[in-house]
Amino acid sequence: MKKPALRWLSAVFDHSNIHLTLLVIAVVFLCVHKVNAAELNVMVNESVVMSELERTELRQIFTGHRQYWHDGTRITVFVLHDNNELHKRFCRDTLKMFPYQLSRLWDQITYSGQGVTPVRVSSYEELVQALENTEGAIGYLESDKIAKLRHLEVVE
Length: 156
Description:
Radius of gyration: 23 Å
Oligomer: single chain
CATH topology of the largest domain: D-Maltodextrin-Binding Protein, domain 2
Strand content: 15-25%
CATH superfamily of the largest domain: Periplasmic binding protein-like II
CATH architecture of the largest domain: 3-Layer(aba) Sandwich
Largest sheet: 6 strands, mixed
Number of domains: 2
Structural class: alpha/beta
CATH class of the largest domain: Alpha Beta
């Protein structure tokens, strides 16, 4: 005997009720819609003269392997904490890695004495202020309409 909670499932997927099965599947797909998340933008302080950056260069900056801009200005990387959804999305979608992988790379560079970890800020507002007030700063935001910041185009 089938469990009561699963009886409806066997009725839906019974071959004699194929029309009902297709109807249920169609309703599920029509009811589920993708929520459009705000686009992430790589933002830099207005002192940075670049307008675009290759994805490999961006990864080098955020992993600590590149520490100076082309003009010799020191790069200061600002990020949110690893458990922040925006940080997770940035790592996954832009850097193509997981936050824990990024943290491990930062730890390796820091403990080997080859670099410094990015500055972790606790809120989105703090991230905006840090990017606005720090020469050579780079970070990520959901908006590219902030007066003292410039949008940096990431190219493949």
